[in-house]
Structures are given as C-alpha cells and as structure tokens.
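Section 5: illustrative case.
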C-alpha cells in the first residue's frame, strides 16, 4: 500500500485552527498562515478530508479563508436540546449562518450528537 493510499484514509482534525487546544499544546492556536501551510502539506500528502465542528471556535471561519475544493469537509453539530420539538427545523435554522461563516458552499457530511429528542421516537 502506498503512502497516498494510507493518507487518503485519514482526516485532518482542525480544532487547533480555531482554539488553543490540547494538553501538550505549548504554542496555542495555529496562525492563519500556518493553517495555509498545513492544508497545503496535507493536500500534497493525499489527505482529502477535514474534520471540523461548531465547537472548534473559529475553525470553520478560518477554513473558509482557503480553497477547500480538494477536500471533503466534515462538521459536527452540538447536541439538540431535549426540549426541541422540531429537530429538523432546529438544524435548518443553523445551516445558512454556518455555511456563510465558514466560507464553504456546502459541508460533505455532518455528525450529529444525539440527545433525548434526537435519539428518541422523533430521531
């Protein structure tokens, strides 16, 4: 198996693009310039998927500053509150602002954290 076949099965996590995250992180949040370098290196190595989330601070906005056309972008939504009676409407209310804020025209996939409402009969 070639290195490109291996890296094509990996996703690049982007939490440090939006937050000073990590127990061993001594540098803080990655600069926008460094994000560009990381994305270019990932692209060259054959990594084709980016993992982001609304909980990753400014990550989606920072990613929106770059051409992501060669990447699949996977995002995550926060848990839907148990008191939410209309789960699809709650999700739909957030998508336009998420897309505009991220600079993306679309996300390739979305992971949803279940809560009582989403995991129950309505989910």
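Designed sequence:
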């Amino acid at each position: 198996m070639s290195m490109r076949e291996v890296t094509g099965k990996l996703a690049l996590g982007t939490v440090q693009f939006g937050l000073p995250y990590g127990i061993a992180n001594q540098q803080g949040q990655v600069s926008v310039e460094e994000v560009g370098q990381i994305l270019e290196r990932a692209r060259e190595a054959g990594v084709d998927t980016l993992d982001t989330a609304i909980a990753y601070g400014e990550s989606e906005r920072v990613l929106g500053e770059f051409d992501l056309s060669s990447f699949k972008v996977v995002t995550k939504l926060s848990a839907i509150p148990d008191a939410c009676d209309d789960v699809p409407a709650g999700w739909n209310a957030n998508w336009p602002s998420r897309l505009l804020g991220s600079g993306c025209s679309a996300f390739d996939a979305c992971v949803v954290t279940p809560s009582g409402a989403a995991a129950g009969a309505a989910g």
